[in-house]
Amino acid sequence: MDILTFQGFEIHVARRQIRVSGEFIPLGARAFDLLMLLVEHRERVVNKAEIFASIWPGQIVEDNNLTVQISALRRSLGSSSITTVTGRGYRFVAQPAQECVGAARRAAGNLPLRSLPVYGRERELIELLRAHETAPCVTLCGLAGVGKTTLAIWAARQMAVAPAYPHGVWQVELANVLDPERLVQAVCESIGLEVNPRDVPLTQCLAQLRHRELLLLLDNCEHLTDAVAAFVDALIKEAGQVHVLATSQEPLRLRGERIIRVNPLEVPPTTNAVDAADYGAVRMLLERVRVAMGGSFDPGAQDLVDLVEISRQLDGVPLALEFAAARVPVLGLGGVRSRLYDRLRLFSRGLRTAPSRHSSLQAALEWSHQLLPEPAQLLLHQLAVFPGGFSLQGAELLVGAEGDTQLIDHLDVLLERSLISRQPGARPRYRMLETTRGFAIEALNATADGVDWASRLAHAMAQLCMNAARDRDSVLMWQEVSNARAALTWALTAPGHEQVAITIATFISVGLGAAGATGEALDLLKRVRPLVNARCPTMLAARFWHWYGRVGSEGRMPVSLSVEAMLTADAMFESLGERRHRHSCQRHLAEVELEAGHAERAEAHLRIAHELEQGGAREADRMRRLRVESRLADARGQHDLALRHAQAALELAEALNVKRYRLLLRADMAWTQLQMGQADAAVDGCLELLVYLDDSIRQGQARGRVLSGLTAALVAAGHIERAVRSAGDSLLALRQADLLRARCEVFAWVAAASGARQAAAQLVGAGEAFAAQSENERDPISKMARQRAMELIEPILGDAELRYALAQGRNLGEAGLYHLLIHTFAPAPPLQH
């Protein structure tokens, strides 16, 4: 039954939609599944246990989830459509009007009477049906195995019952039509048109179709695109009542053609996503596994994790999911998951009735591959060396084709054929599905053209990282992190590539540090530190030592080591005459000396920085120096002067549109207000800043500083519950920036104020250990926080208990500290601001 009709609404089963008063109403996947369960068993009450087992298999779900879905159905269908039987369950009670409209209106045609169920394609189906209302030709484009044919048949079955096609809906399978001259004959044979072999087939075909109203489903056109385009163009001109639905790996490129991209099924963003079964890829894989297991598969908790991870690793490609499900009876879900690294050989046995191009995953990819022009094939192989997607600039650096329009042309072919996809965003960035990438890597290795592509990738990444650092392009830098990691790992073990390794680690650390991922940045720099010797070019060595000292500040390594590294860098920059790099070094040296409590040394470095500005300096450098001047005044208790310096720097940041510095300076000003006893003003300033922060790691440093400042301001203002929530919200950002230990005293104050005295004492101990190891002097806020925490702790804990808790805190490692903080500040709903 295609359509179930009740009083006031229709259920379109294949479309997984309901239609109320002539309008299609969107329903979530869970709600529709629940509706169909109730409709199928409308002769009785369906109890909650049965509903949970069917709609949320293998999951622990609270009753309110079911209540939400029932409420959604009642809003759409009317409150009297589903009745609640107290203590038992629910029953569907809407009155049927006509149960099988679809069967009564079935048109002529050759569509299969049964078709595979489709999962997660509701959006594409709606888009397709709407497009067909106005376009004579709609083409579904996508990679081989992505489900174009299944979706097309599903849509065509809906169109078959429409009055617009009284002469039927006809599928023309073109995969085995290898000669373009046979195209028209294949169409005629599928529809049942007789043509005289002595006359022109196209003329006879058009003459017979001119007065018919039908839909042609031209399936698998990619190897005949020129011939199909010419045929469809003639149809549009000569047979206006014939509509075309085509499936192809590339568009037909006709005037009036509507192109709908069929992408892989959606996959959950994480392995442990609570709503994983709502995603099309997981739903499809689960159902296919049930079929493969004889219908008796009831997934447990680990099975659901495996289902999600298989779906994610296979990028949600339906054909790959089919192959994976077929291997489950032999290997189990865990066995399939553990062997996905060799998926092309694992998925080598398809259905006996499958087309040859779908007999294995390898065959499907080869079908797409052989249709490419040779230059596009070669480019596909080469681009596969990028593990994390690529930009146009990265592709140019890799293949040595900067400014070459041929590269853009070949990329366009790969994009058009869905072998790569363009990721959303303001600037072009491209991605290759992992299955396609594995196939292309094997093809690259098989060509044995003598080019060391791992070396080419490493050199390309080194140049790209330098370019991004030069342009202060933190967005590009962050996008390339996974590629840089892979290239660095290779360069560290490849003899003769030491300079490449140093370059990648040094310049990627610039982006990571600015983004707040300072822990990883320092790890990368430590990996290449043994390679920085007399053979290293002076400029590169100077950049390395500068960033090694800079990233190691704020307690990540002892102050003496940071100072030593930056003094080494400063001397090298001076020998090269690099005034601007010296200016940066002197600013950063001042910051590190301030952390150690050496205000006079910090002032001396700032004096040198100011002198370096004479004779012409960039406003951005002056802005950065003024920020450090503000922090120096703050450390000396000159809060009014600190605010004046910060305001001057802020005006420059706004004029230069430096968003990150605007955020950091406003956060600095809130910290100063807090020291001045203006806690409520500091709270307001931090809350205002939260509006401008996004969730990207590029703002990690600013986010950590703002959230920790807000936490301190809230507890100082007496808003304890909000301070606890703020502390919980800040943990991830501070951990990413490797600043958890530096904020221990603030956390201790919040914990003590909220009654968690034992945890507060441990946090004070962790703060003491941090100060001793880092050679840092506590900043004024940390000093105040420690004092307030101890005032709250000491009257409650005895001397022995306090000493024990402090000792526990001093011995906490990074993981232990994070666990303590998570336990103390359990995640809570986001702050309202």
From TrEMBL:
Occurrences of domain OmpR/PhoB-type (ranges): 1-94
DNA-binding region of this protein: 1-94
A family per Pfam: Trans_reg_C
InterPro entries: AAA_22, HTH_77, OmpR/PhoB-type_DNA-bd, P-loop_NTPase, Sig_transdc_resp-reg_C-effctor, TPR-like_helical_dom_sf, WH-like_DNA-bd_sf
Keywords from the UniProt entry: DNA-binding
Superkingdom: Bacteria
Annotated protein name in UniProt: Winged helix-turn-helix domain-containing protein
